[in-house]
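Lesson 9: reading folded outputs for more than one chain in a single document. The general rule is that every protein is listed as its sequence immediately followed by its structure tokens, and records are never interleaved. Here is the first one.
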Amino acid sequence: MASIARITARQVLDSRGTPTVEVDVTTDEDVLGRAAVPSGASTGEYEAVELRDGGDDYHGQGVLQAVSNVNETIAPELRGMSVLEQVVLDDALRALDGTDDKSNLGANAILGVSLAAAKAGAATLGVPLYRHLGRATARTLPVPLMNILNGGEHADNNVDMQEFMIAPAGAPTFSEALRTGVEVFHTLETVLQDRDYNTAVGDEGGFAPDLRSNEEAIELILEAVEKAGYTAGTDVFIALDPAAAEMVEDEAYVFWKSDPDTERSSEDMVEFWSTWVDQYPILSIEDAMDEDDWSGWTMLTDAVGDDVQLVGDDLFVTNTNRLSRGIDEGCGNSILIKPNQIGTLTETLNAIEMAHAHGFTAIVSHRSGETEDTTIADLAVATDTGQIKTGSASRSDRVAKYNQLLRIEEQLGTAARYPGLDAFPLTH
């Protein structure tokens, strides 16, 4: 029957040494599904609520209340339900919580159960998770958006932009794309060392040196691409996550690390990004405007939306209500997908489905605080998103997702598809 016999949650640590929730769902046939929940460093204001304990333990970052909510509240209610009925399970979880933002039981408690149940369902059927979620049609490997230089809230340096990424969209296969990204990453390390720059890495595995300007970060990446034997704008492209919500002070945009005395309007930001898109081989910009600057997003989309992917992360927070507004108002052309922003697998899948139905792309993403859990790798393939954002080619919590994608590519064999530039919503 594949019914739930036991649900057990525990407190474990994420990649930053911060507590998080791990959940085991075990069926009456003794089949186990296990999932660990990630956590963000810079979080959108409209994300589902992650419960933290407060107090002295772990400097207030413990999650024992969320663990208790799973063990004491959720487990008794879901016992006996089928792990093969994901929508029913997730509806029950939402009803148990009773709030729109999961603030009662905690999104970290609810998502752990949702994902663990899905894994138990796949194990019950004897199929990989990507096949369980995506059925027989799942065969598209994602273009990796690899974070190789860090700034903003992700690094203790003077770079305003949070993430500088490379997208090896010119490769013929995922494995070749990964090799390209790794070679550029290691070449960048040499480029930085030659200039006596620090090669310590940030939360997501990218380098975090003090640079003279935001522009220098791109110039160094382009130099690394060339020295690694590739061509920027053909083999490898630039992707950015400036995390503009972190730059807003008193309704103005401020480059708070490099230029703290200059205030920029929404129009100024549109002009800034238009210049960069013209100047550099930029394929994608995430959170280029603030999460509440809907008119700014519309202006930016009108200005460069045919030339570059404009991704809403803090803007949409994997939420179909906010995505629907963005579609109606012409804000962006892509959504970042983070399951812990919304709290259940079903709601995550609904956001991807809505995006695709309206011509938006969707990018499955990690968080700054990750674990060895590789669910998002399977999710990217299952949903045909064609893109994944899961950090650099260092730190095992990031590389685990890439290794899972290599395994999936091997399993798919000749049926595997790598979309390259076709994964991006570009007219020009």
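And here is the second record, again sequence then tokens.
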Amino acid sequence: MFASFPILLVDDDAAIADILKRVAERVFPEATIAHARDFTEAAAFLANVDKDVFRLVLLDIDLKTDSTGFDFLSLLRDQSYGQLVPVIVLSASLEESKARESYLRGANAFTNKPFTYAAWKTYVEQLRAYWYETVTIPQIRFRQGPDSFTPSNY
């Protein structure tokens, strides 16, 4: 396991980011959550990936901007390192078509957003149990220079 577990949250709702960070401090202390409010901010994190390598992405597909979470998911999966980072889609929608499109574009899971603090606490506890304690996510390291991506342990 890792001493630090960086997570990128892409969600236009600041309240979601706030509650997720507060819950994580209590039940997933290894997590550090970076928040991107839209496609542009999320893409900026990718541009600095040599500094900000995330172990997990939590992605709202229903961003209220010109570009959707699906657009970011496609951008991420088009990057060589982005193929190794698990993406958990967060949605308030129960539409099967959104779940289907999420998986077709490369999401690892499609989940419904919790609506209460208690539900968020359970969600983060389960997130930690599975993605931090149970599965193995390859560590991504970078060398200097363009196109110098090398995944370690992969």
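What the second record shows: DSSP finds five helices and seven strands in the chain.
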